[in-house]
Amino acid sequence: DEPRVPHPVHKKDPYYIAGWSREVPLPGANFPHAAHLELAAQRPSVEDELARLNPPIYVPKKRPDDPIGSVRGRHLNNLTAILHTCMLNQDWGRASRAWGLILRTEIAGFAPDIRQHGRWMIGAELLMRRDQTLEPVQISTGDQGSELDDSRPQPMAPVLSDEGFHLAREYYERMCLQYPHIPRARHSSVNAYAIYPALFNIWLYEIQHRSKRARQKLADSHEAAEYDEAGSARSNEFDQRRSLRLIRMRELSDTKPLVKRLDDLLLNPPYDTCPELLELRGMISLWLANM
């Protein structure tokens, strides 16, 4: 009698035909459409083997042009920390000097790219606040009594100069010429496509900042004239309306060059489909309509 097989083998089973046990996992890669290739284990170098010993016999040195381990790289990191600390403390003079040292620092013969890590916006901020001054904030009449009793210092508001705004806009203009938009450039690269929205934003901020200062001075003079018994209330109100009209007219005249430059830019691709510029143009239109 033939011995009985408790589990008969199915001779058409792919595992049986291939001679592969089901307990062993199938090979990866493109099997079974291609032969399985066993990757040769990469043998570590002698330096790595000596460095893995305990204690290590050899410690590999970093390359001299490595920006993380080199002395110049650490110097650049320290200058960056000083720059941000001075900006947080509103010490714009020292921040400008630290920024100048960063631009002059070379690593492996190359200067740092100011477009990386958002450094290109720091340059415009330093130029804009180059001649910044602080003016005391006027306190309303109802709050003067409480402020006199309180020993807290009077709040100060920053005042930016027209020269600082002009330097910041000129800085962005130069960057747009130095880094033009290239169709095949990477999406994350900073070029004129990303710089133009910042240019128009700072231009618009300049116009609004100048008008805000003019309105604040007008309000302060009107509040001081209320306590002057020599002038009449009717003449003061007429002068205030006339001054407000002049401020709006100047604001409108300052906005016209911005609108013309923005409209000319939106006529050319790829800026005609830039969402930031299109949104900015729509907001400017609403702002001018409400003026």
From TrEMBL:
GO CC field: RNA polymerase I core factor complex
A GO BP annotation: nucleolar large rRNA transcription by RNA polymerase I
GO molecular function, one term: RNA polymerase I core promoter sequence-specific DNA binding
InterPro entries registered for this protein in UniProt: RNA_pol_I-specific_init_factor, TIF_Rrn11
Name assigned to this protein: Transcription factor domain-containing protein
Pfam families: Rrn11 (PF04090)
